[in-house]
Task: structure prediction
Amino acid sequence: MREDIDSRRDALAQLTRRGVGMTLAACVYWLALAAVSAWAGLQPGPLALFFLAATPLVYPLGWLLNRAFGGDLLARGHEFAGIIAVQAASQALAWPMFGILFFQHRSLIAFALAALLGAHYLPYGWLYRSPAYYALGCATVLVAAALQWWLPQQAMLAIPLGMAACYALGTLGVWRENRRDERR
Result:
């Protein structure tokens, strides 16, 4: 039975290309947030609102990039497609938290986004048999927490820069895993 599940996970990883386009889109997202934070001159309220407003744009960009890499992000026709849909949709449950943070603790928006969006990669580590996603899921939460703790006044810039670095390394790791699979 274990071999059967593992072979299905391998097939899913190949079909979706492990969602490498979504990981790259997240890197672009964090770079954009860092750029706006550094150069737009926005006050904390409008900056936090921009962070939240930009978040839903990641999925369409990730879907397009994943298609460009030859993957089907939705895993249509695969028996584990429902797991992917539930995992992706579960992030929507955090929006009430983001709303409360926006009105009560705007300075924590970058941290909350980084921790939530990053942690959701841990199950993909198992699902896609991807050490890169395990590392990304842990690194994003730890880096975001450290930056929020050590640089609270600069967190709206420091966290996006840290996340961009994490996602760039994560994208490279997932891309390498996909290349390794192609050579088999």
